[in-house]
Amino acid sequence: MISPFNDEYFMKQAFQQAMIAFEMDEIPVGAVVVANNQIIARAHNLTEQLIDVTAHAEIQALTAASNYLGAKYLTGCTLFVTLEPCVMCAGALYWSQIDRVVFAARDEKRGAGTVQKSLYHPKTLVENGIMAQECGQLMKDFFENKR
C-alpha cells in the first residue's frame, strides 16, 4: 500500500507552522516531530511572543515531543524543519539523540552544518532540500517586509 505520509507531506506540515509564525510577525520557521508516521509535535518560532531568544521552532518541537513521549530521548523520531538548524538547536538535537533531521532551506550564515558539520549526534542522519525553494522564499519575503 502506498502511504501519503512521506517526507514532502511532513515538510508541508512544518511549512504550515512557518506560515503561522509569519502571520505572527515571528521569523517564519516551522517544525514537526514525527514518530511512526504520526506527528507528535508541531511548533514554530516564538522568540518575539515569549521574549526568549531560545524559543526557536526546533526547541519548541523537541520539548513538545519529549512531553508527548514522556522521554528525554527522541530515538525513533524525525524532525522536519523549514530552515537549517542553528548551532544552539543542533546542540539540543544532539542531546535528544533524535534519529533524523530533515531541513528545507540552508542558513548560510548561522546554519549548524555550515558552521561545523560535527555538531549533530553521530547517529543522527541529516538531510536537506525538500521544499527548499518555498521555505527559502518565505524567509526572503519576511525580511524584505522588515526592510
Draw up the topology in text.
Layout lengths: L6 H17 L6 E6 L2 E7 L2 H4 L6 H13 L7 E7 L3 H10 L3 E6 L6 H4 L9 E4 L3 H15 L1
Can you offer a commentary on this structure?
- The chain is α/β, with parallel strands linked by helices and 147 residues long.
- The chain contains 6 helices and 5 strands; from the N terminus they run αββααβαβαβα.
- The chain has helices spanning 7-23, 47-50, 57-69, 87-96, 112-115, 132-146; strands at 30-35, 38-44, 77-83, 100-105, 125-128.
- The protein has a 5-stranded mixed β-sheet.
- α4 links the parallel β3 (77-83) and β4.
- The mean pLDDT is 91.
Distance between the termini: 49 Å
Question: Which range does the strand content fall in?
Answer: 15-25%
Largest sheet: 5 strands, mixed
What's the helical proportion of residues?
A: 40-55%
Number of helices: 6
Shape: globular
Run of helices and strands: HEEHHEHEHEH
Strands side by side in the biggest sheet: 2-1-3-4-5
Computed over alpha carbons, the radius of gyration is 14 Å
Give the strand tally: 5
Mean pLDDT: 91
Structural class: alpha/beta
As residue ranges, the low-confidence spans are none
